[in-house]
Amino acid sequence: MSSTEFAFVPAVELAAQIQSRALSPVELMRATLERIEGSQPILNAFITIAADSAMDAARAAEAAVMRGDALGPLHGLPVAVKDLVPTAGIRTTWGSLIFKDHVPDKDAVAVARLKAAGAIVVGKTTTPEFGQQCLTQAPLFGRTRNAWRADRSSGGSSGGSAVAVAAGLIALAVATDGGGSTRIPAACNGVVGVKQGLGVVPQEYAQDGFGNISYITPMTRTVADAALMLDVMAGPHIFDPQTTARPRADFAAAVRASHSLAGVRIGWRARLGNAAVASAVISACESALTALAGLGATVEAHEAPFENPEAVWFVNNGAYRMAQFGHHLREHRTIMDPTFVRQMDRVAHYSAAELYAAIFQRTRLYRQVQTWFDACDIIAMPTLSRTAVPIDQDFFGPIEIDNQLVENIRASWYPYTMPFNLTGNPAISLPCGFDPAGMPMAIQLIARPGEDAELLRIAAAFEQARPWAEKRPEAG
After folding, report:
1. Angle, nearest 10°, between helix axes 310-332 and 352-371?
2. Which residue ranges form the domains of the chain, and what is each CATH number?
3. Fewest C-beta in 10 Å: which of 238, 281, 454, 465?
């Protein structure tokens, strides 16, 4: 089997083939590394490729299969990890020249759990410096290009993970999401992006364990593969207070459950405090809603008043990042990404009172959003207001939506993602079509806190009704 034949096989199928000895972990890893290394000059999805350690682990995985050892659910499967997430013995740079030689001695809990289930870390995917952009670019590595068109952005900040999955370099990737950083690039590249509910997957290294709004997430081509990853990554950890006493769901069982959506009430919001959204995006989402209705769901417009919370997110996130990284601005400003520096300079003046006013507003936002579920079970909306922006998009400049220029990329391109980092509701971005230029579009579904498994069940039903995983970029 060639590297191309391996490329787009779902992880659940690869795992079954390894378990049955129909597929060699060594052969799979060799093909994976070949595709990654061949793609780098164009896509540039990886900061670090851990070829030697990955091959050593693949040989050990194959030996375990041949001995008849008990195998974990991810045994022998390559996994890529976003370079914001610590990996023992593999360089973790946070996309920054400051940390270009940093090698942790300990894995993040989510990574350790993936490895304990048999997964093999093949490398670290690209992220803008400290993950603080929706465009994956940084002085350390340059730009990561969209899997479908080289003149379009991959989105961000998990652009490398999304492109690696979309281009068939790997079936499983770890991403993070602090304001849409999983769902934005998933939508841009036509893959599945899950931001599970707050506290489902531990982030034990977060410096603010109580006010954290960032999530470690799966990035995959199929809903079943996302469930496979979540089943391994999820569960309480003593160092993350958000995970305390949370029951574990069986996500893989949920996606195998009935795909009937009889009795499911879906509320549709075309806008979420934004004025502009591309007509092609609206048409694609409305077509997706028709498919959901065909499975038995009822779909009604949801029109509760809502104010774009970008300013709230900006203060919460900005103050957090200034506390984290402000000392680097003083010591290393000249080698840092100018876009990151400019963002941090804009939040440097916020007072403690302004921060707590934003925290109070976050609580009000949470309570407001939960009232939406009095009238429906799922909220549906676009993931993005338009498809992937140009590769040279100015982060501080306007974006174009249906030939009109719209200011503020956060508030105008991804107003649909930021609110649910603040509220903690589980959300998923699902491919739902292509625009006239051939670029992927996506619909986002949001559920009540604690209903991640039901959200994945509904997403799997939609995936079965409107399959997309066989669609591949031309380079695939």
Report:
1. 140
2. 3-465 (3.90.1300.10)
3. 238
